[in-house]
Amino acid sequence: MNILDFGNAFFSDSAHWHGYDGIPQRFWEHVQYSLLALAVAAAIGLPVGLLTGHTGRGGNALALIANAARALPSFGLLVLAVLSIGFGLLPVMIPLVVLAVPPILVTTYEAVRSVDPSPVDAARGMGMHESRILLQVELPVALPLILSGLRSAAIQIVSTATIAAYVSLGGLGRYIVDGLYQRDYEKVVGGATLVAVLALITLAVFWAAGRFAVSPGVRRR
Amino acid sequence: MIRIDSVTKRYPDGTVAVDRLSLEIPDRSITVLVGPSGCGKTTTLRMINRMVEPTEGTILLDGEDIQGQPVTTLRRSMGYVIQNAGLFQHRTIVDNIATVPRMLGWGKQRARERAAELMERVGLDTALAKRYPYQLSGGQQQRVGVARALAADPPVLLMDEPFSAVDPVVRKGLQDELLRLQDELGKTIVFVTHDIDEAIKLGTMVAVLREGGRLAQYAPPAELLSAPADGFVEDFLGADRGIRRLSFFASAELDLTTDAVVPADATAERIAAVKAPHLLVTDPDGRPLGWAERTGLTAGDIATDRLLPFGRPFVPGTDSLRVALDCAVLSPTGWAVAVDGGGRVTGVVSQQTIGEAIRAAHTESRADKAGAGVAE
User: Would you state the pLDDT for residue B213?
Assistant: First the structure.
């Protein structure tokens, strides 16, 4: 049997489509973990990135922290978190957030830094407050790059959220972990396919968000 | 009036950008700050709206220290135009222009109406209102920059090398437009440039700054050209300042002659009456056709296809002595052709006569200055 057959067998089995271990349930759990982790990471990364980008201060420290965070292995962090906190959602969120903050933080910082300084100078010269300069002059122009940072963070979260299953939580990782344990390769392939599909959906969502939120004057079409 | 009083800007590393500069900037006129790079002209401009804070000295706006009010209030009372316009690329043209009115709390509708009005004023097609900056040419963008600065009708306009990034033809258009606008609006404009020709063209008063931020000379452009304060100013003004100074003398009083102007169907007596070696031949409407040699002309039938070109004519009263002289120099006969607004010949004038007019104008301006000196 090849991969396609495994997948086919998994998705055509109607038993996999309902119940607490059904695809809709696991898919939804995965989406929830991912959204929560992305929201927390964005709540940390965006403000810090915007502020440091606007003032131009702390860029080196930022790069250092971000690189250090990138070097941390998610799985190792998960194990450490579980050992020190115990089972639950929090120890799963820690590695996901640590994973997602660096791309958000660094691209947001870079995006704001790379905004053409002359409109900022003009805005300041016409008496605009600093907060407005950041939110109404720099942010709209930096938005495409900021969204790309959020997007890569989201993709990484979606693929890494499978580790939640190692610590008895749900999500699509359940199929992969259980399937490997039970030597049920249909399940493994099915789970992996679903993760890939969710990653593609994430891409599509960010593409749509870009179309909707970025000014045509910045998109240049 | 803006009064810069012994202002110094020293940076922490010890560099002095502006050194004890004092200037009185008159209301409702264009004051140009000009000088080589590193002369502190931009720094001086940016101290007026407190984008840079002086180390020493004060700047007074209508007698009040500019430090006395919140910085945003001060800046909103001054239009600010920079090189490359600095437009907000995510906003449409109309919204760019409406920025300051919106900050001042105007309603959206009113701000947009005002923006549309300003687009017309600065010579922009209102069809561009919904476009984005990237869809406009450099010259158009700069017009938007000027309109945006004027939107809330501030009494003061600060312009930092606004036209340096556009090509010479567009730049000339923008300069003419600014002069026209200034005639209508009468703002107090402080204009920074490194281009001395731009300074002379636009300035009511010109402050020449030298490296290290010291004032070399502060004078009206004609005076700058006739009496540079020192070698630095003279060098900075460059060659042919004598010729350039002629731009400030009117050609209205030139002694024109119509003796040598004849219609193409002139009679033999008329041609014989001409003493000059060349005749300017005109069409029945009085428009110039070209120059003819007096000898060998047939009355009533001057061959208009063998005439010498008459070059570029000038309009006495509108054009300066510089233009008149240029016309005479370019003319193959050494005579300049004067026309009225409709292009009809009002007379011709020789290089020699223009030369006399120039000497007379020089004498007169020296006398004026001496007179003014006595009055003081």
Answer: 93
